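About this split. The held-out portion is used to measure sequence recovery: a designer receives only the structure tokens and must propose an amino acid at every position. Recovery is the fraction of positions where the proposal matches the reference. Here is one held-out target exactly as it appears in the evaluation file.
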């Protein structure tokens, strides 16, 4: 056993009181706005421990995870799992779109060769989810349209395009 494993502390987490859920949700949203996604994530996990079906906490947790894309190794996978478990079709589609859009944003900001092509693909996938979500959106809810437009503008602004074909090019002699 390594030294780090033997020195690892394990704590029993203290449960959140049920009557504190609403206040805790407000705090989680507040900490997201303050760019403290790990704190928002922790609060949402506390809420979900006492109210496993709390959709608002699930959504705030998903968003806090997307705020950590690029720095937390499993954040994208966790966010997508949460999106897949949301109760209604509209939310599943809309928040899956957000997961893809934010993966596109991380790819776009990356200095890795070819990441601009990855960004283009993520944005297109997000746009597809937003298109589907817009057909299920409640009357007066244009959120999927606004997100779709943001993706389209980003693609145009950065001149993103499809990855070139992998087809071999003829060798000229």
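Reference sequence for scoring:
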């Amino acid at each position: 056993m390594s030294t780090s494993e033997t020195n690892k502390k394990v704590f029993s987490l203290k449960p959140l009181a049920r009557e504190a859920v609403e206040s805790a949700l407000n705090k989680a949203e507040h900490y997201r706005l303050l760019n403290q996604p790990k704190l928002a994530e922790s609060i949402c996990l506390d809420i979900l421990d006492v109210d496993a079906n709390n959709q608002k906490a699930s959504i705030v947790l998903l968003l806090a995870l997307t705020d950590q894309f690029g720095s937390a190794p499993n954040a994208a996978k966790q966010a997508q799992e949460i999106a897949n478990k949301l109760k209604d079709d509209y939310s599943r589609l809309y928040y899956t779109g957000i997961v893809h859009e934010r993966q596109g944003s991380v790819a776009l900001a990356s200095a890795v060769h070819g990441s601009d092509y990855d960004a283009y693909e993520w944005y297109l996938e997000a746009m597809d989810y937003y298109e589907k979500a817009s057909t299920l959106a409640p009357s007066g809810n244009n959120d999927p349209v606004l997100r779709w437009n943001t993706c389209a503008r980003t693609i145009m602004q950065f001149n993103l395009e499809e990855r070139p074909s992998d087809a071999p090019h003829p060798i000229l002699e």
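Annotator remark: DSSP finds eight helices and no strands in the chain.
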